[in-house]
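RECORD TYPE: inverse folding
INPUT: structure tokens
STRUCTURE:
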């Protein structure tokens, strides 16, 4: 094992769907393939303004798939942060189509025990990383200022709150799943199928994670209608743009003298197995700013 000079760690993007993957890819530059890992294919690119590197991979649907691929990616790339990016169904009436929901915490809502008197919830909960949450709130305030300055409806509202993660694609006005969530997770803003797996992988690997989901439907049986009205495409783009701006903030934080000392020539070490390679840390002078440009 050979130590060598390190450069800032990349930000890792995970998506469940190809459409979500393509939306994130559209925000990156200098894309190139990375060697596959046990068949899993990754791409590496640059964040806006050259602020840092990004790695992106499609996990497929479900918490089991997201956990396996997330752990594989975390161990290989040692990212500064892991962002799961995509769409979700709204669970509360105040959450509008197109809104971006950043998970304050993730509920794995399927944990339960069947008892003679009925099922009893056995909740599992993971909090978002504090540093990412702070950066996301700062970015959310910036969005809100833009919304007030340009009240055209093109700039999405950024919401923070719990996300419910399970194994059911929910698209019915009433169901046992919806009743269960209302009884035990009534403050959840959105429902999806991958965040719990990501959260567990992050916990086991001590990697900071966050979940960025835009609302494409209301999880109430109207998904066909909202998809026909292009809400899925719009929501995917909203999530991808916000997540990339959040990743840029995270990358810039890594390059601050307080965090890395790289501007003064300080270096860290990483370890390679079965060989060695060199990397030179880079410093960006000045700021990189992202502005929402509605299509």
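DESIGNED SEQUENCE:
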């Amino acid at each position: 094992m050979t130590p060598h000079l390190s450069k800032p760690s990349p930000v890792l993007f995970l998506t469940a769907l190809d459409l979500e993957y393509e939306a994130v890819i559209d925000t990156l530059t200098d894309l190139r393939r990375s060697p596959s890992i046990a068949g899993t294919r990754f791409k590496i690119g640059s964040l806006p303004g050259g602020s840092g590197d990004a790695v992106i991979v499609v996990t497929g649907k479900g918490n089991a798939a997201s956990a396996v691929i997330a752990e594989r990616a975390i161990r290989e790339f040692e990212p500064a942060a892991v962002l799961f990016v995509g769409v979700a169904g709204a669970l509360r009436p105040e959450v509008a189509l197109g809104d971006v929901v950043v998970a304050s915490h993730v509920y794995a809502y399927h944990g339960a025990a069947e008892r003679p008197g009925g099922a009893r919830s056995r909740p599992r909960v993971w909090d978002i990383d504090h540093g990412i949450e702070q950066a996301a709130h700062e970015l959310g305030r910036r969005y809100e200022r833009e919304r007030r300055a340009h009240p055209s409806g093109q700039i999405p509202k950024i919401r923070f709150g719990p996300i419910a993660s399970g194994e059911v694609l929910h698209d019915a006005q009433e169901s046992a799943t919806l009743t269960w969530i209302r009884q035990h997770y009534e403050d959840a803003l959105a429902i999806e199928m991958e965040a719990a797996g990501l959260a567990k992988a992050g916990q086991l690997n001590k990697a900071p994670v966050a979940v960025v989901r835009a609302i494409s439907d209301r999880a109430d049986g109207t998904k066909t209608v909202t998809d026909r009205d292009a809400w899925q495409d719009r929501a995917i783009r909203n999530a991808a743009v916000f997540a990339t701006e959040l990743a840029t903030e995270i990358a810039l934080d890594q390059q601050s003298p307080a965090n890395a000392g790289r501007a003064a020539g300080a270096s860290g070490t990483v370890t390679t197995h079965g060989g060695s390679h060199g990397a030179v840390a880079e410093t960006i002078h000045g700021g990189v700013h992202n502005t929402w440009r509605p299509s």
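NOTES: The two ends are 49 Å apart (CA to CA).
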